[in-house]
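Title: Comparing notes on inverse folding

I've been comparing how different people in this forum approach sequence design from structure. To keep things fair, I'm posting one structure and asking everyone to reply with a full sequence. Here's the target:
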């Protein structure tokens, strides 16, 4: 693994150039810039995953992974595909499992992986890759930066092909729960459909109706956020005063998901990048004492 450290925090990042880390890098999450764990110098690990503290399956992952979707969230509308060949941007070449009954982890198979250049520095690591497959040509740069108690993930994506590049990107942070619950402050006016766990007041405060039970208990819902505003939120943490989270873009849609080990809000960015053009965005976490 790669490591970024200061007096406050240590970041462990999966190394896409190291075969020892490949067992944790499948087709679902971008390989470059995958934050596996953040550890406080005094308080220990701060982020979790669906199976934490057990070693997760490669599909589930843990930490602060991010993903370029090769289909839309319905898993039907294809994005970065040409016939039976596809691209999981930041991961590699993919093919679909011919078995229509295959579970989500097995629905896609990862073939040739992206080749990455990794450039470490004192307060950041830069990951760069380029891929041309299945009618998709792109250059991708990811930068993970640690400043004090703030972790920022920067992404730059360039379409170097000759056709528009349509895709969805989203961060999938795995935040720690406090006794299988969480309290979160979302933007005022955020709503959620009726469900068994999450409820949101008019001021945007999210609370749990009940704690999560053991697996397979979990809850998925789609948040409706105020329009034309980049997402910013905060939530409680069992070891910290709070965690803050913000993205630089207005989400196209925004799932929330949790189980007895973790909670995640996933703001989706919808992109259509013309040939020769570049897009930039970031996601930022603050881990407050």
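Reply #1:
Here's my take.
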């Amino acid at each position: 693994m790669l490591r970024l450290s200061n007096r406050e925090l240590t970041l462990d990042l999966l190394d896409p150039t190291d075969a020892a880390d490949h067992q944790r890098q499948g087709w679902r999450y971008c390989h470059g810039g995958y934050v596996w764990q953040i550890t406080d110098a005094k308080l220990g690990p701060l982020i979790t995953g669906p199976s934490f503290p057990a070693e997760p399956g490669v599909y589930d992952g843990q930490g602060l992974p991010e993903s370029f979707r090769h289909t839309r969230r319905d898993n039907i509308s294809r994005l970065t595909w040409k016939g039976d060949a596809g691209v999981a941007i930041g991961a590699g070449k993919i093919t679909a499992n011919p078995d229509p009954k295959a579970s989500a982890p097995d629905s896609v198979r990862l073939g040739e992986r992206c080749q990455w250049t990794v450039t470490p520095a004192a307060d950041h690591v830069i990951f760069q890759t380029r891929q041309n497959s299945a009618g998709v040509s792109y250059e991708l740069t990811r930068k993970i930066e640690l400043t004090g108690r703030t972790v920022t993930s920067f992404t730059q994506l360039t379409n170097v092909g000759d056709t528009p590049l349509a895709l969805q990107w989203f961060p999938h942070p795995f935040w720690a729960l406090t006794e299988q619950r969480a309290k979160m402050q979302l933007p005022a006016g955020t709503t959620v459909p009726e469900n068994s766990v999450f409820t949101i007041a008019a001021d945007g405060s999210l609370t749990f109706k009940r704690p999560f039970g053991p697996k397979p208990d979990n809850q998925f819902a789609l948040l409706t956020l105020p329009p034309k505003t980049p997402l910013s939120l905060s939530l409680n943490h069992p070891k910290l005063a709070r965690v803050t989270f913000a993205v630089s873009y207005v989400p196209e849609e925004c799932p929330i998901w949790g189980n007895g080990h973790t909670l995640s809000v996933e703001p989706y960015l919808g992109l259509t990048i013309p040939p020769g053009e570049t897009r930039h965005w970031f996601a930022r976490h603050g881990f407050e004492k």
